[in-house]
Amino acid sequence: MKVLTLLGSPRVDGNSTKLAEVFNAAAEGLGADVTTSRLNTLSFRGCQACDACKTVSERCVLKDDLAQVLEAVEQTDVLVLATPVYFADISAQLKTFVDRCYSFLYPYETVPEKSRLPEGKRMVFIVTQNWPDGEVFSDVFPRYDGMFKALGFQDNRCIRGWDLGKRDALATKNRDDLIHFAEKTAREICVA
Fold it and tell me: Nearest CA to 190 among 142, 118, 123?
């Protein structure tokens, strides 16, 4: 089983990254082949709305560091997206990746299938936030879950933690519940 993890936080030691590392370690322990990409270290642009992926190509035509990431999405079984909540949404780095996933959709009027991606992919969405009220920003995952379901992802899961303002909040706030949930999610989703 292949797992591709995309880290959306600009912080190398942020809470979303740490939860992704817990998930990845558990997945590797189950025999998964895990690849991680830190989006903030890549050089890439957002979707240019050129529609070349709908008219002259079956892929995004931009030639930047995200091209290899998009190709890896095609090959993976499980896509892990990890992000902090910044200004009521996912990080800009991850949002730019999501926008480029538009290239995975067939032209709307030409075929009944929506997605060019192979069927059976799964997604794990890791979201952390400083805000202490868990109801606030609870709409973030459902919004992106719908987008990835349109791309054919199934059995999508969310690992979400709030009241995690400091970089070491998982340890200092004794959030073993989140760590155990990340490990449990890996056991449930990384099955052959």
Answer: 123
